[in-house]
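User: quick one, fold this
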Amino acid sequence: MKRVVITGGTGFIGSHLCHALMTCGCEVVCIDNNYTGRLENVADLMDNPHFQFILHDVCVPLNVDGPVDEIYNLACPASPVAYQGKHAIETTKTCVLGAINMLELAKAKGATILQSSTSEVYGEPLVHPQTETYRGNVNPIGIRSCYDEGKRCAESLFFDYARQEGVAIKVIRIFNTYGPNMDPKDGRVISNFIYQALQGKDITIYGDGTQTRSFCYVDDLVRGIQAMMQSDRDFFGPVNLGNPNEFTMNELAEQVLHKIGGTSKMTYLPLPADDPTQRRPDITLAKTKLGFDPKISLNEGLDKTIPYFEKMLGL
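Assistant:
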């Protein structure tokens, strides 16, 4: 039985990955400090003898007893609410110290380690759609830079450990992802829009609503993550994982309002500093190397996601 470690395992994406790997017959060690993750996301796994939860902050070195075949490093606040402001320093530490500590664990165990990087490494892109060869346009001192630059530094560390220490690495760049297990108050656009509409509140759009994002349903993303880990050893990445279908914020808001109904209206506020105006992945590399091709449309994905938020609100 393959034994895997997932940091950030109680978070939105991490919890889905825990379930997917358990279904595949793996033994899973889930590591999280529950800063943005929630134990409820993996509550159904707690009594499984092949699942172990360890409460731990990856900024502190960690040794895992026994063999480890694979490590998925997903630990990091990924929402603007969590990483801006008073938690910026902790976010940088999680990105950088967490990467070092997990790379050291991979080195000690002879494990393959996957880094969940982000489309935010591209910043406010001057190339559209974004390919992996584009080096980005990032503000290194802005309010989002703790996350953007933290993830860029983590990528650098991964490739240095591969070159210098011989660690087997995989690097993915995740674009906007959504689905059940999201935190309703995490500040991400889909959770914001659904949560507001279900409560009959006006939907808050920052900027004029013409800025774009590409939304990948979490099940598609998890399949891409698993495919990357199982890819040829000499394929390190980085590789974009996301859904290339692009929508404006106005289009997204209209879809949410159409599905939920009610009296909510769209209201507009100024665009936050350094918030990218365009985001769409070029997934040619992922298609070629991983056979990655997202199947779940935004329309279908919203139908799968809205009931989760209704349950959260007791509706």
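User: anything notable?
Assistant: The longest strand covers residues 112-118.
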